[in-house]
Amino acid sequence: MVQQKRILYEHLDVPNINTFDVYRQHDGYKRFEKAIAEYQPDDVSKMVMDSGLKGRGGAGFSTGLKWSFVPKDIEPRYLCCNADESEPGTFSNRYVLEKNPHLLIEGILICCYAMGIETTYVYIRGEFTLGKKMLDAALEEAYEQGYLGENIKDSGINVNIYSHPGAGAYICGEETGLIESLEGKRGQPRNKPPFPAVEGVFMKPTVVQNVETLCNLPFIVDKGVEWYTEMGPIYGDARFDPPKPDPNTGTKLYCISGDVNEPGVYELELGLTCSELIEVAGGLRGEEVKAVIPGGSSAPILTHYELDTRLDFTSLTLAKSMLGSGGIIVMNETRNIVDCLLNIMKFYAHESCGQCTPCRWGTPWVRDIVQRIADGEGRQEKITRPKFGIAEGGRWGDTGETEEIYEDLDLLESVANNIANVDTMTWNTICVFGIAVSWPAVSYMRKFRPEFEATIREGKLTTLSVEEATVPPEENYAFQQRIIPKEMSELG
Amino acid sequence: MSDEIIQLETPFQFNEENMKKVDELIGRYPIKEAAMLPTLHLAQKQAGYISPAVMKHVADLLEVTVMKVKDVVTFYPMFFEEPVGEYVIRVCQTLPCALRDCKVVLDHLKEKLGIDVASETNLAKGTTEDGKYTLMKVECLASCDVAPVIMINDDLHKNLTPEKVDEILNNL
Ligand SMILES: Cc1cc2nc3c(=O)[nH]c(=O)nc-3n(C[C@H](O)[C@H](O)[C@H](O)COP(=O)(O)O)c2cc1C
Ligand code: SF4
Ligand code: FES
Fold it and tell me: Where does A337-462 sit in CATH, by number?
């Protein structure tokens, strides 16, 4: 069985690690001291770039690259730590805040040193009252001990960190929604560009970084790039000749919930498969895996045929899903996929910020269609439309044939695809919330179409066996188009 | 809403302790308006809910229009514009909790308290007549590993069953 590799979470359960003294006994702040004593700010940035660290909050964007976009000649610059953690199925940041807040502070300090930033806001979701309390207490200690404030430890560096509570809106996790919210407004995302790195909070260059991303920094600085890049696969991007290294390095705080025996956060090297993770989490609760959501509720679902997919940024993207926030939700044979989709669509309909028409109207519309189907009132009429599948040349596309489909399923797909199109990856919305709606809607319907059809046909929520409910691999759009990436070492 | 027509039924003023905190909060940001959310949280803690008088006071302190404060208050689910119960019970309803029978917990609470679930536009229907409890559904509370969960005011309660809910309510 794959072993846990606890780095960020190594001292999580040490009693009183939330206090300065105990944290200090466990090398606390020594990594920050090492950074300022041994490296120039640019060296730290270079290490982060070379480590291959990718953002853990959802988008999986290279942290080093993001830092390189920040103009160094505009003052002041800000860091916003994204502790809004609201993606359903994700709960790893909460434990850091509640149990080991000094680790986050140390990570922030290192980021501030590298980027020459003097002010950081930690945007904590409003419901994290305990997390905020623990962080505030740790901040106070860090100020007392001279690790925050003016001229930290006589280094000439000034850093202030403030916690800032949200108030229950999911969209404030989106980086520009977070920025608007931080400025005291509705958390409605901004059009991009300009990106926050150039024009963010208070219209100044801003780095937005997830809690987990920042917590990686002390270890990268302390143990070095070589040590870091030994964890997790480095793929070769075959679109380049010679293949360009595509690192998926480091560990991930995988959050696993739903039908497993031991739900929880497991820190593991990136790149284990979905079935391996289920095994680590005490195995399946039930007889058979029906479906797995691999990266928070926004991620396209995986069927039991796709459990060999490795849970890293590249593999999941190439399997037409995403690692997202690393929230894995497992469903066993007793679950009804229509019902699960309804739950998720209610979430999105509630959380749309309302700025863009396709999202504001489309999301409740999708919810209503799924509700109607789940209530047994799905429209019985069928329509004829072009059939997509394995077309000439073995590629996925229009087969030239036609198929019959329930009107409601066609409508569901079409409304969702008009918010954001999952096939062309184009959207008509300001932020990617739109794709977070259509990804689940379209993928659940396409991959578990027999269960949707049975529910419409029978006029009541009908749960089929795993085998019957799942579209076979040869008709599964994602399975047919998925690419399994090769590691650099395999490519020679 | 223009400032003149607001009816200040219950006047509101931050108490001395909170006023100090607000001053400190405002100092954290380059613009006063940015202290909006933390200030509203403080106000709600003191007043119970965000009444027009609260909005007016906050608007004056942050030097913005009352409309701007209202705009923010209506956007965020955690701010209440009507009175709520002494204990606000938030029941998580999102998928991981649903897979762990959160519906049983919600139904039990509804039956036990004899109330419906509050909606954002109608908090009264989810509040007991004695003003003790308000029952609401919320989205994922980022504790799916210990599902099903509820929050009562600031405290999270995990791995719930109807029996555990009874025990918790008895100990309030
Ligand atoms: C709808 C939506 C919700 C998001 N929610 C969160 C969140 O709760 N926490 C988070 O860290 N990132 C969230 N993100 C991702 C952020 O936009 C951003 O990519 C991230 O904070 C960047 O930090 P990272 O590079 O360290 O991951 C969300 C994105 C979207 C589109
Ligand atoms: S896509 Fe939806 S959530 Fe994003 S900005 Fe538009 S309306 Fe708001
Ligand atoms: S779904 Fe209830 S805590 Fe996440």
Answer: 1.20.1440.230
Regions of chain A where pLDDT drops below 50: none
- Closest by alpha carbon to A234, among A220, A252, A219, A247? A247
Q: Is the Cβ–Cβ distance between A178 and A80 less than 8 Å?
A: yes
CATH number of B87-170: 3.40.30.10
Determine whether the shortest distance from the Cβ of B147 to ligand 3 is under 6 A.
Answer: yes
- Backbone φ/ψ region at B153: left (φ over 0), alpha (ψ -120 to 50), beta: left
ipTM of the complex: 0.94
Report whether A128 contacts A171 (CB < 8 A): no
Which pair of structure tokens corresponds to residue A217?
């920094």
Query: What are the structural domain ranges in chain B?
Result: 3-75, 87-170
Residues of chain B neighbouring A90 (CB-CB closer than 8 A): 140, 142, 144
Domain boundaries, chain A: 20-230, 244-332, 337-462
- Do the beta carbons of residue A211 and residue A220 sit within 8 Å? no
Q: A149 CB near a chain B CB, below 8 Å?
A: no
CATH number assigned to the domain covering A244-332: 3.10.20.600
Q: Which of A304, A308, A217 is nearest to A271 (CA)?
A: A308
Q: pLDDT at position B1, please?
A: 47
Restricting to B residues 51-110, those with a Cβ less than 8 Å away from any Cβ of A are: 62, 64, 68, 71-72, 75-79, 90, 93-96, 98-100
May I ask the CATH class of domain A20-230?
alpha beta
pTM: 0.96
Q: Cβ of A148 under 8 Å from any chain B Cβ?
A: no
Give the per-residue pLDDT at B61: 97
Q: Give me the CATH code for the B3-75 domain, please.
A: 1.10.10
Q: Is the dihedral of CA A32, A90, A297, A450 positive or negative?
A: positive
Instruction: Give SS3 for A260.
Output: strand
Same fold, B3-75 and B87-170: no
A236-272 tens-digit pLDDT: 998 898 999 999 999 999 999 999 999 999 999 999 9
How far apart CA A284 and CA A276 sit, in angstroms, is 11
Pocket of ligand 2 (CB under 6 A): A 171, 188-189, 352-356, 359-360, 429-431, 433-434
Which residues, including other chains, have CB under 8 Å from residue A201's CB and lie 6 or more apart?
A: A78, A80, A121, A179, A182, A183
Q: What angle do CA B135, B141, B143 make, to 5 degrees?
A: 125
Residues 6+ apart with CB under 8 A from B165: B105, B108, B109, B112, B150
A337-462 matches A244-332 in CATH topology? no
The string of pLDDT tens digits covering residues B117-136 is 999 889 999 999 999 999 99
pLDDT in tens, B70-126: 999 999 999 999 999 999 999 999 999 999 999 999 999 999 999 999 998 899 999
Q: Are A45 and A114 in contact (CB under 8 A)?
A: yes
Residue A209 pairs in a beta bridge with A81
